[in-house]
UniProtKB/TrEMBL annotation, chain A:
The keyword Transmembrane helix applies. It comes from Sinisalibacter lacisalsi. The chain crosses the membrane at residues 7-24, 30-50, 62-80, 100-119, 126-149, 169-189, 221-240, 260-285, 297-320. This is Branched-chain amino acid ABC transporter permease. It is a multi-pass membrane protein. The keyword Phosphoprotein does not apply. CDD domains: TM_PBP1_LivM_like.
TrEMBL record, chain B:
It is found in: Cell membrane. The keyword Zinc-finger does not apply. The lineage of its organism: Bacteria, Pseudomonadati, Pseudomonadota, Alphaproteobacteria, Rhodobacterales. The chain crosses the membrane at residues 16-37, 44-64, 70-89, 101-122, 142-162, 191-213, 225-252, 284-302. Keywords: Amino-acid transport, Cell membrane, Membrane, Transmembrane, Transmembrane helix, Transport. It comes from the Bacteria. This is Branched-chain amino acid ABC transporter permease. The keyword Transmembrane helix applies.
From TrEMBL, chain C:
GO terms for molecular function: ATP binding. Gene3D superfamilies: P-loop containing nucleotide triphosphate hydrolases. It comes from the Bacteria. Transmembrane segments: none annotated. SMART domains: AAA. It comes from Sinisalibacter lacisalsi. Residues 7-248 form the ABC transporter domain. PANTHER family: ABC TRANSPORTER ATP-BINDING PROTEIN, CONSERVED COMPONENT OF ABC TRANSPORTER FOR NATURAL AMINO ACIDS-RELATED. The keyword NADP does not apply. This is ABC transporter ATP-binding protein.
Length: 327, 305, 251
């Protein structure tokens, strides 16, 4: 446990140090890569609440990532053209303010997660995997066939949205903002995991009958976990859209869902920092392997296969050993 | 929408449905017997299509192409089962999802590396090209009608295989009780390889047959895979009959939704708005169907309670 | 023994296809008593416990708890109503520590499962309740161990401890002595003997010495039917019981 704490601090330190070093040596592209990793990490930490702590293997979290992204895209595009989103029952104007966008991204993705969760949590195991995958894909096809916001081509935003007191166009400032959110999300998830709710969620994963026998309804606990998880992933989606100043249905694609799970398994399932290490590793591999070969995903697939078959605890598991009981 | 068009759309839906069945049957068998969720099933579909396109290009024979699709997909399936999949049987679903996701990456990029990013084309054989005249003055593509026939024939063969043959008895025993079947003296690992290869062959065949009306390209299996999952959720995991009913329901819902919803919306909306609203809703129709089944029967139409 | 029953089964039935698991079972559990349910393997004891706990719906009949019809309630609602059960096969969160499992019960009892941000293992009230329960079953020194590191007997004890944290108004215990060994069985017997003062116990148990020492009343279940109910000495003398257990021909 203590070892894992130290490792966690080291991981977070590295994630902070790389872009700072890049900033000092004027390599903005590296900062952007680090920002990408941090945003993926937020999405992964969100998914890990459901998947790691709750044992809910969602293959549809791209839906929430995409909804967060489109919340940004839609609000910013309306602000760009000075047209309201709708005028009835009340007028909703577009906005270029990140805090407002985040709020709506979180609300929209939480709502979607609540609805998808309410349906798919009626089932479990392999059904749950297939159903979350299917609902995720529903959003993908819907965005492709819905022409109002760019359809298949997506939406471009000309200028990155603003945050009070920051110049978000400066890569290091946007990185700092994303990093601060990652820290806030990590803090939130740590608190959640240590709470009575976290205990009940872990119990529901390990032994459903036991959870019921103490008078706790696993369905409701899981539904809340799934909703919070979707909301966090949605927030990451809004940041990701702002990083690229572009959203497209690709954010909804099931490959995105798969990649989010990959972050978690690379780092270590159920570990607080698993997705952070995993996302950093993924972005590094994507960058370096991608530079070596056009077909880098073959190598990446092989690495992933190796991790799944032979290193089940992920990287953190390799370093600190089996997860010990805490407290 | 005229009667003729409606019949055509129903036939299209059926054709789509029976092809989905070929995919879903393999997936549901593999899950039923081995308890494995295989995301890479779509890759086997793709392998079948590429094998068929290559052989057809070299020999000009559609029959040889179909044989190649069956053979190549079964071989790829058996190979993957022997090297990777069998390590996953005892694992939890998360490991299965990730490992088979990794296989997709390897298959897709490997195919891109071998064949390039441009789509290949597989021609409809002359004997099956052109329209065929049906009653009520309906002209329908002969090839699509043949697909319905082939799909139903394969479904019938599969039912016979499972209800009448030794292999079928072993498969059913495996679905009932995995420990039991080992006690009966069946070579379980051989049975598993065989079932996996059989599922792969069905997927490969579907890939080749569909490849002739769409293009053969990397990633072609993934949309079909996800639809096959919807089919299985609707039909109930492990049930071949459920897969058939689910596949036809999904095929009809999707096809008719795309054809009819814009028309229906057109009754109350302007044409342009009706087109886009209808198309958007149609893209969600099968998922709404799935949600409805889930609310009414969480284990699927033919799933065990 | 004229008190109104805490728990009452009225004509409970359950069939699995052609197999009748419980057939028209009626029995009651009165304040302050241990009512043992015995019977040969496959008699349907665990099925009956599951029907009472609400994990298995009954085909017919009623379950009354404290005068209230709970037949339509699921396992969660029945646990909340005050039915505390232990499982025949230990059913615990194996990755948790012993203490965490007990705290889980306390969380269920306090209904704070939706407390999102307060660290639960630092909640004095819940942890104290959990530790008291561990103390009562003799597991206090193992509180920091991972549950999957416990012996089978210790897991049985933890099952009972978790049930204690629920502060139930009736206990359903499915073989709490299994795998305990001589010493453990003696300790558990002594403990259950005092526990009946807190809440009555419906006890399924194979250890006949313990059953006849503890039970105020015994019901014998054979092929899903109650063939006899009575005081231990009555049961000992009952012909139907002897025939069911010992294969003696009924005279």
């Amino acid at each position: 446990m203590r070892r894992e704490h130290r490792l966690n601090a080291l991981i977070l330190g590295l994630v902070l140090a790389v872009p700072l070093w890049a900033w000092a040596t004027s390599e903005p592209f590296t900062i952007t890569l680090a920002t990408r990793a941090v945003i993926f990490a937020i999405a992964g930490v969100g998914l890990n609440l459901a998947l790691g702590t709750g044992g809910l293997v969602s293959l549809g979290h791209a839906a929430f990532f995409g909804i967060g992204g489109y919340a940004m895209g839609i609000l910013a595009s309306h602000a760009q053209t000075y047209t309201p989103l709708f005028e009835w029952p009340f007028v909703l104007e577009g906005t270029k303010s990140m805090p407002v966008i985040w709020l709506l991204a979180v609300a929209a993705s939480a709502l979607a997660a609540l609805m998808i969760g309410a349906l798919s949590l009626r089932t479990s195991g392999v059904y749950f995997i297939m159903i979350t995958l299917a609902f995720g894909q529903m959003f993908y096809y819907f965005m492709i066939s819905w022409p109002a916001y760019g359809g298949e081509d997506g939406l471009s935003i000309y200028v990155r949205n603003g945050f009070p007191g920051l110049n978000t166009l400066d890569p290091i400032q946007f990185f700092a903002l994303s990093f601060a959110i990652l820290c806030a999300v990590l803090y939130l998830v740590t608190r959640l995991r240590a709470s009575a709710f976290g205990l009940a969620l872990g119990a529901a994963r390990q032994n459903e009958a036991r959870t019921r026998a103490v008078g706790i309804d696993p369905y409701r606990v899981r539904l809340l976990a799934f909703t919070l998880s979707g909301a966090i992933t949605g927030l990451a989606g809004a940041l990701f859209a702002d990083l690229n100043r572009f959203v497209s249905p690709v954010m909804f694609s099931w490959h995105t869902s798969g990649e989010l799970i990959v972050f978690i398994i690379l780092g270590g399932v159920g570990r607080l920092m698993g997705p952070v290490l995993g996302a950093a590793l993924y972005v590094a591999l994507e960058h370096h392997l991608g530079g070596l070969s056009d077909y880098w995903q073959i190598y990446f697939g092989a690495i992933l296969l190796g991790v799944v078959l032979f290193a089940r605890g992920g990287l953190i598991g390799l370093i600190v050993g089996r997860e010990t009981a805490h407290d | 929408m005229t009667f003729v068009l409606l019949v055509e759309q129903v036939l299209n839906g059926l054709q789509f449905g029976v092809m989905l069945f070929l995919m879903a049957a393999g997936l549901t068998l593999i899950f039923g017997v081995m308890g494995l969720i295989n995301l890479a099933h779509g890759s086997l579909y793709m392998v079948g299509a590429f094998a068929a396109a290559t052989v057809a290009g070299a020999t000009g024979s559609f029959l040889l192409a179909l044989a190649a699709s069956l053979g190549a997909a079964a071989l790829a399936g058996a190979l993957v089962e022997l090297t990777v999949i069998r390590r996953l049987y005892g694992r939890d679903h998360l490991d299965q999802v990730l490992a088979t996701f990794a296989l997709i990456l390897i298959f897709s990029e490997g195919t891109r590396w071998l064949f390039g990013s441009f789509p290949l084309y597989l021609d409809i054989p002359p004997a099956l090209s052109g329209p065929v005249a049906l009653p009520f003055g309906i002209d329908y593509p002969r090839y699509r009608l043949a697909l319905i026939g082939i799909g139903l024939a394969v479904a019938a063969a599969l039912f016979l295989l499972i209800s009448r043959t030794r292999l079928g008895i072993q498969i059913r025993a495996g679905e009932e009780d995995r420990e039991m079947i080992a006690a009966l003296g069946v070579d379980i690992s051989k049975l598993y390889t065989l079932v996996f290869a059989l599922g792969a062959a069905l997927a490969g065949l579907a890939g080749a047959l569909i490849g002739a009306i769409q293009s053969v390209q990397v990633g072609m299996g993934e949309p079909v895979l996800i639809l096959a999952f919807v089919v299985i959720v609707i039909g109930g995991i492990g049930s071949i009959r459920g897969a058939l009913v689910g596949a036809i329901l999904v095929g009809l819902t999707d096809t008719l939704g795309r054809a009819l919803l814009p028309v229906l919306f057109g009754l109350v909306m302007e044409p342009a708005a009706a087109m886009s609203a209808g198309a958007s809703l149609a893209s969600m129709a099968i998922y709404i169907l799935m949600a409805a089944v889930l609310i009414l029967r969480p284990r699927g139409l033919f799933g065990r309670a | 023994m004229t008190d109104t029953p805490v728990l009452e089964l009225r004509n409970i039935c359950k069939r699995f296809g052609a197999v009748v698991a419980s057939n028209d079972v009626s029995l009651d559990l009165r304040p302050g008593e241990i009512h043992a349910l015995i019977g040969p393997n496959g008699a349907g004891k665990s099925t009956l416990i599951a029907q009472i706990a609400g994990t298995l719906p009954s085909d017919a009949g009623q379950v009354m708890f404290e005068g209230r019809d709970v037949t339509g309630l699921d396992a969660v609602a029945r646990a909340r109503a005050g039915l505390g059960r232990t499982f025949q096969i230990s059913s615990l969160a194996m990755e948790f520590t012993v203490l965490q499992n007990a705290v889980l019960g306390a969380v269920g009892q306090a209904r704070t499962a939706f407390s999102l941000l307060r660290p639960v293992m630092k909640d004095r009230v819940l942890v104290a309740a959990a530790e008291a329960a561990l103390e009562a079953v003799g597991l206090a020194e193992f509180r920091a161990l991972r549950t999957d590191e416990l012996s089978h007997g210790q897991r049985r004890q933890l099952e009972v401890a978790v049930a204690l944290t629920l502060r139930p108004r009736a206990f359903l215990m499915d073989e709490p002595m299994a795998g305990l060994g001589m010493e453990g069985t003696a300790a558990m017997t002594g403990f259950l003997d005092t526990l009946r003062q807190r809440a009555p116990i419906l006890l399924v148990e194979h250890d006949m010495d313990a059953v006849f020492r503890l039970a105020d009343r015994i019901s014998v279940l054979v092929y899903g039917e109650i063939v006899a109910t009575g005081r231990p000495d009555e049961i000992r003398a009952d012909a139907a019981v002897r025939s069911a257990y010992l294969g003696e021909a009924t005279p």
